[in-house]
UniProtKB/TrEMBL annotation:
Pfam families: MFS_1. This is Major facilitator superfamily (MFS) profile domain-containing protein. Its main location: membrane. Keywords: Membrane, Symport, Transmembrane, Transmembrane helix, Transport. Residues 30-470 form the Major facilitator superfamily (MFS) profile domain.
Amino acid sequence: MQFFNKILRPSHRFKYRVCVLPQRYIMALLLSCGVLALFTIRVSFQVVLFHMVVPPKIIRFANATITCKYSEPPTPPITTAKKYDWSESHQVHILQAFFLGYFLGHFPGGYLSDRYGGKIVLSCCTFATIILTILTPVILSSSSMDYYTLIGVQALTGFSTGMLFPSVHSILAHWTPACDRGKLSGIVFCAAQFGVVLNDAVSFSFILHTEAWSSVFYLYSSIAAIWLVVWLIFGQATYRHGILSTQEENAYLDRNLADLVSDNYRKVPWKKMFFSIPLWALIVSHFGHMWIWHVLILDVPEYLMYVLRYNMRNSYFLAALPYSMLAVLTISNGFFMDYLINNKLVKITTSRKVFTTFGAVGPAIFLAAVPFVHCSREAAIILFAVGISMTSFYYTGTRINTLDLAPNYSGTIMGIVNGIGAIPGVIVPHIEDDLIINNTFNEWKALFWLHFFILLCTCIFFISFGSGEVQPWNDYELENRLAHIDAS
């Protein structure tokens, strides 16, 4: 890496642009590809796990109420690879091990990114995820303690992928001026949605084609490895180290970022952050989004499969289609928000609250309406699609707010916010298991209305206490110096 940095050192600023796009957009595209690679690894394991064992839920719902009189879904496809006799509780423990590691990985990931730079943290967590992903099928095929070994590997994989978003946000804070924040963030955040599409569209087909669930691990780890090489060459933690930026772009970023974010390490104002009401509003709002995100990932395919009686492959395919629209809307909403703010049509705080409202209440309403259309497949799919697509407003409402409050500590903030946001990944599956017993419409209504209430409460909290303005503790050291001057 030092070899390339020596050749392409930032002291060689180009007077004229050597690429069609400014380097800040190149960085956004690079980060987007990285998020796509690692996020696909994260969401793919649930699909792979289905093919590693015989899912107990197939047995449970086979004797439950047949709500809609469509053809029965077929049994899971058989692969030639080894299968494991794990109970449903075993599978839950495996998935929870990942989320426990994912939860814990955010906090050091954010702190280390702000202290040492997001590039090194993102590179290390990507490398660790690649190695662990490759080792997973190898260990399972050779270890005599398959179940416990997998729990350990999944916890470590969760820990490494937990550093992804904090490091990405730390890098974004050093590359994204306020006037471009919606556009660049939209380009990066849409990758998570494309990751869902790629997983649902590719994983099943790849397993069926190769007749081995292990092939998915090798496919996605190879994609991540290719990205890592490109990232090590061209990626940079801050615009001051950019190797493709022009003198003009560097001056532009200096004017817009120099007073907001510093390359030097700054002591984290933990006490100020803990008592910051706008930060707590961000935490609550993000918790609500991650709640509905896990609901859409887990509940929608199951509703299509066990209520509307689609087969498994079609259920995941239909559930993935709206995420393509969601990804496109995430980008377009970013451009639209920047247009509104740059033309002074709306204040930053107002825009964050309005977009958050659409991104929280909208999906909750359409999701709650699904059981009321009963067995109408077309109506249910339309409601699911609109609900999923409306979560795009969240990314330009709440998610981008981590860059608003304190750019100097954006990695740390994202570590806290998204770390707490990982908790619904553990809670949501248990709630569904407790409420959905006989697979009736009334049970699904109760479940979806519970989700609606949670989303409404988190949205109201953000509207009441959220802010889009830079907080005083972003420059904690300057604030202390001014306080000493006033005291003297």
